[in-house]
C-alpha cells in the first residue's frame, strides 16, 4: 500500500462514526443476530496490578452491551487489593466496593476436599515418576505419602498448587534420575513449592543440616542447635498455611541431624556410609545435587560409576593398557572424587569387576595425585591403594594372592607397588577383617615385591633418586623379604660411587612438619625415632664411616643436640650432624647400661 492508500484509510477512520454511534451499530448487529455473546476472562489475579486496574476500567466502560455477558475468574482478595491501590484516597474497602459495582452476580467456588486435592496432586506425582523412569519400593512410597501428608496437606489449598508441584517434579526427576534419592528430592521440591522461605534456608546452610553433631567432652552443640531452631522458626513463620509440627517431622526424617535439635536422638559417623549409599540429601556428598540439578564440579556421576562397574566386568586378561576402563575417566582432577566414590561402593562390586578394577587402578597409578598433606593416608594415592586392597577382598579367597601379586607387578610406579603391599589386609586378632591374608600369604607377596625391587636395583637404578620418599619402606622390604644384609651391601656400594646418596637416605627418614599458623610444610629434624628406624635396617657403622670419609666436618658436634630453625639452612649437613650426635648419645646409653649391669652383678 502506497502513501496515498494509507492516507485514504486513515481519513476514512477519522471520518467514521464516533464511539457512541459505533456502539449503537454493534448492538443493532447483536440484536439482528439473535445470539448472545459470553466473554470469559480467566486468571485475572495473575496480572500485574496496573493490568488488573486497566482491565476493570475496560470492563466498566463496555460491559453494558446488549446480549453480552462477562465471566471474570479471579481471587477476590488479590484483585480487591490491586484495586484498593488505585482508589487509595477513598474508603478503606474501596477495592471491594468497586468490585460490587462491577460484578452483578458473585459466585464463590466451594473449597475442594483435601482428599480430592491430594489424589489430584498424586496423579501428577505418578506421571512425573513414570516419565523419569523411576521405580519406587513399597517402603519408599509409604515414606513419601507419610511425610507429604504430614507437612503439605494444609498447604495444598488449590488445584493450581497441586498442578504446580507436579510440573516441578516433571522437570527435576528426569534430570537427577539415578543421582539422588527420589523420595528426598520429591519432598524437597514440596518444600520449594509450598514454603519457599524454608527452601532457601536449607539451600544456603549445607553445613547446618548435613551429617550429624560431633559431641566432645570439652564442648557441646547448644549454640548451633539454637541457631538451627531460630532459622527454621523464622522460615516457617513466613510461609502460608504452614503446619509447623508437620514440617518439623518432615525435616527430621530428611535430615537426621535435626533429631538432636528437637529431641535426644543422635547419629554416629557410622551412619554416613548408609546415607551415602542411599544418596540421601543429609549426606554432604549429595546435598548440593538437590539444589543445583547437576553434578557439582569435582564430583562424579553415580551413573558414570555404575557404567564403569559394568564395563569392568567385561575387561579380562590380557589386561591391555589401551582398553583400560579407567582411561576416559581417571585424571588428576577426577581422581579424588572417583576413588572416594568407588571406596564407598567397594563392598557392592562383584568379583569379576573387582578383579578388573584392581588391575586397572594399578595400571593407572601414575595418574593418581599424591600431594604432600598432613595426613598422608588421606591422599588420593593412598586411598587408591586401600581401594585395591578392598577390591582384592571381593574375589574368591584362593585367587587373592595371585591378584595382589599381579596388581603389584602391573603398577605403573614403584611407590604404588609399595603402597598396595602396605595396605593389604593382614590377619590380626585385634582387627575385625575376615578372610584377611595369613602371614604365609603376606610373606609370598612380600617376596614377589622384593624381587621386583631387586630387579630395579640390578638395573643400576639409584633408588634414592627414583623413589626418595619410599626409601625406609624399600629398605625394610629388602631386608625382610630378599636377604637380611641386603641394605648394608647396597648402601655401601651406593655411597662409594655417590657420597650425596647418604644425605638423600637420611633425608628420606626425616618426617614432614607443618607450621601451626602458616600451614606450610617443611622438613623436621632427624631425631631418635628416625635413628632407630634407619639403624634397624642399616648398620650404623656404615653411615658413620661414610660421614667420616666424605663429610668429616659433621663429626664435630657440640654437647647440645644440633638444631637449626632457619628454613634456608642446608638441612642435609644438619641431618648428618644429628645422626652423629644421636649415635654418640646411644653409645653413652649402652655404656651406662653395661656399667649398671656390672655393678648389680
SSE order and pairing:
Layout: H1 3-14, H2 19-33, E1 37-41, H3 49-62, E2 68-72, H4 76-86, H5 94-102, H6 114-132, H7 138-152, H8 159-176, H9 182-194, H10 196-203, H11 206-209, H12 222-237, H13 244-254, H14 258-261, H15 271-277, H16 287-292, H17 302-314, H18 335-345, H19 351-363, H20 380-394, H21 400-410, H22 414-423, H23 439-458, H24 463-466, H25 471-481, H26 486-497, H27 500-509, E3 512-514, E4 521-523, H28 528-535, H29 540-550, H30 571-600
Parallel strand pairs: 1-2
Antiparallel strand pairs: 3-4
Helix pairs in contact: 3-4, 4-5, 6-8, 7-9, 7-13, 8-9, 9-10, 10-12, 17-19, 18-20, 19-20, 19-21, 20-21, 20-22, 21-22, 21-23, 22-23, 23-25, 27-30
Folded structure, characterized:
Helices cover 60% and strands 3% of the residues. The chain is mainly α. The strands form two sheets. It has a two-stranded parallel sheet with strand order 1-2. It has a two-stranded antiparallel ribbon with strand order 3-4. The chain is elongated and about 130 Å long. The protein has 30 helices and four strands. Strand 3 and strand 4 (521-523) form a beta hairpin. The N and C termini lie far apart (131 Å).
Q: Detail the poorly predicted runs.
A: none
Query: How many beta-strand segments?
Result: 4
Tell me the β content.
under 5%
Number of helices: 30
Structural class of the secondary structure composition? Answer: mainly alpha
